[in-house]
Design a protein that fits this description.
Blueprint (H helix, E strand, L loop, with lengths): L24 E6 L9 H9 L5 E5 L2 E3 L4 E8 L2 E9 L4 H19 L4 E5 L15 E6 L13 H11 L2 E4 L2 H7 L6 E3 L6 H5 L8 H4 L5 E5 L8 H10 L4 E5 L16 E5 L6 H6 L3 E4 L14 H7 L4 E3 L3 H7 L5 E3 L3 H14 L3 H11 L4 H16 L1
Parallel strand pairs: 1-2, 1-6, 2-5, 3-5, 6-7, 7-8, 8-9, 10-11, 10-13, 11-12, 13-14, 14-15
Antiparallel strand pairs: 4-5
Helix pairs in contact: 1-13, 7-11
């Protein structure tokens, strides 16, 4: 097999500094794409990019061309690496092609001293030949419980846990699940850019949303099998005078299966920079996740983002939402559609008080991506010596 390149996209980007003058490179293997929803990987890798080179290696794109790959600078010192493989490749050939791509990448960029950072165990088969200074497993979700999960992902995770020097988890439920699987596991709940979302308390909303009647109930995030579509349908039907606004890409479910009502508005994926503006125009923020295996260990980052924006939250009984935010007056938990409607009505009637906002601010002030990154960085340095 001969590795080809994509014209104009794989030429090594000149960094302008020698690796010897900086911290070891970080090579991140992710099941999420850099230009997908801006969340934990982007927040952390952006901060690591302030002191070292970061190569963000995504899962392959399956096309008629290849094997080849793109390398694109997405931020200062951060490169998005996107393999492209032909449809129908044998799994062993896939692993060999990805190994060749990594070999080419490492030679082209002079990657010698580096840390391997995993978001997915599925990257293990084509990275076992690497010799990193340290192996980090940042476990965001229990991927084995997601729709369409690879059948071997549990076995691969067990191997990754054997290789990892340090393990991070994205929420307390996930931490409880992983803490006995490795001697060096640390809880780092997904954090928040507080100043960014706090802007929702005083900025204007986008024109796309401003014409909708009130009250408005909002959700932003990936719209997938974790969303309780029956709950959304029931709320929309019970209160046709309420407007439901949903922002985010639709993945792994048929858009036709989503409830279609005059008072449900799907506004698509919006840039991270614009989320506070949409949040500014909502009266209540929603976490309408179904209670299923896919949400058993979920720790929604949107909870503190909604709260920072000054919005009351109504959520289904997601364990980490209740554990981390259930004692706040601005957070209501409701299981059935009837309870959900009642909780929303109560939130609308009460509004948001200065005392509630002070309570939220006191809690969230101790939370930031800078603090999360700093804590992780110290632990990674400890195992990289």
């Amino acid at each position: 097999m001969t590795l080809s390149t994509v014209s104009g996209k794989t030429h090594p980007y000149v960094t302008g500094f020698s690796q010897a003058n900086f911290a070891p490179d970080l090579v991140c293997f992710s099941h999420l794409r850099w230009d997908f929803v801006y969340q934990r990987p982007q927040h952390l890798m952006s901060r690591f990019g302030s002191e070292r080179r970061v190569f963000f290696v995504e899962e392959p794109v399956w096309q008629q061309v290849g094997p080849c790959f793109d390398v694109n600078p997405v931020q200062k010192n951060i490169w998005q690496v996107r393999p492209q493989l032909p449809i129908g490749m044998h799994p062993q050939a896939v692993h060999e092609a990805l190994q060749q791509i990594l070999d080419y990448l490492f030679v082209s960029f002079g990657i010698t001293n580096f840390i391997s950072w995993y978001y997915t165990p599925s990257a293990l088969p084509f990275t076992q030949n690497l010799n990193p200074m340290a192996v980090v497993y940042d476990c965001m979700d229990e991927l084995s419980l997601f729709k369409g999960a690879p059948t071997d992902i549990k076995q691969l995770e067990a191997l990754l846990l054997e290789r990892a020097d340090v393990v991070f988890t994205g929420g307390p439920s996930l931490y409880d699940n992983k803490r006995t699987c490795h001697p060096n596991v640390h809880l780092f709940p997904s954090s928040i850019d507080m100043p960014h979302f706090r802007r929702a308390r005083y900025i204007h909303e986008p024109a796309e949303q401003a014409h909708l009647p009130r009250p408005r109930l909002g959700f932003f995030g990936v719209i997938d099998e974790r969303l309780d579509v029956d709950l959304l349908r029931a709320v929309a039907e019970a209160r046709p005078d309420w407007q439901l606004v949903l922002l985010g890409p639709v993945v792994k479910i048929d858009p036709v299966a989503l409830p279609q009502h005059p008072n449900i508005h799907y506004l698509g994926q919006q840039p991270y920079e614009q989320l506070p503006a949409y949040l500014a125009g909502w009266d209540v923020a929603l976490i309408p996740f179904a209670l299923s295996e896919a949400t058993r260990f979920i720790s929604p980052t949107k909870t503190p983002e909604y709260l920072a924006g000054g919005k009351p939250v109504v959520s289904t009984p997601i364990c980490d939402v209740m554990r981390m935010y259930g004692n706040l007056e601005m957070v209501r938990i409701a299981a059935s559609p009837e309870e959900f409607v009642t909780a929303i009505a109560a939130a609308l009637k009460q509004g948001t008080t200065a005392t509630q906002l002070e309570q939220v601010d006191n809690l969230l002030t101790c939370t930031s991506w800078d603090r999360t990154w700093s804590g992780m960085r110290a632990l990674v340095q400890a195992v990289s010596i």
